[in-house]
Design a protein that fits this description.
The chain is an alpha+beta fold.
């Protein structure tokens, strides 16, 4: 590994697999999104998950986002198949354990 990086200046890249889009896919996606919006009537706080947020740039902007600690949260499960949307199911528990998840699936 060190020889590849140091001497040959080669870097390890992860493949990203994406689905090939067909010509009529954009209209289908828009119709499905509008359907989801009608089915799910809830609002988000606008806060971002810092583990999934990236900022691309030529320099580090040193961006700061002030967040309220221990703000109220809700756990929601929703599944999407080609035939229907399952949920949303709201959990009243603070965290979703395997037992809580199994109870939701069985009920």
């Amino acid at each position: 590994m060190k020889i590849l990086r140091k001497r040959l200046q080669l870097y390890l890249y992860k493949l990203q697999l994406v689905q090939k889009l067909q010509p009529n896919d954009p209209s289908k996606r828009l119709a499905f999104f509008e359907y989801l919006l009608r089915r799910m009537d809830f609002f988000l706080s606008g806060k971002v998950n810092r583990h999934n947020t990236r900022i691309w740039g030529s320099q580090n902007p040193h961006a700061l986002i002030e967040m309220e600690r221990d703000s109220p949260k809700v756990n929601v499960f929703c599944a999407i198949s080609r035939r229907r949307v399952f949920g949303p199911f709201f959990f009243s528990e603070d965290s979703v354990t395997g037992k809580v998840y199994l109870d939701m699936l069985e009920n």
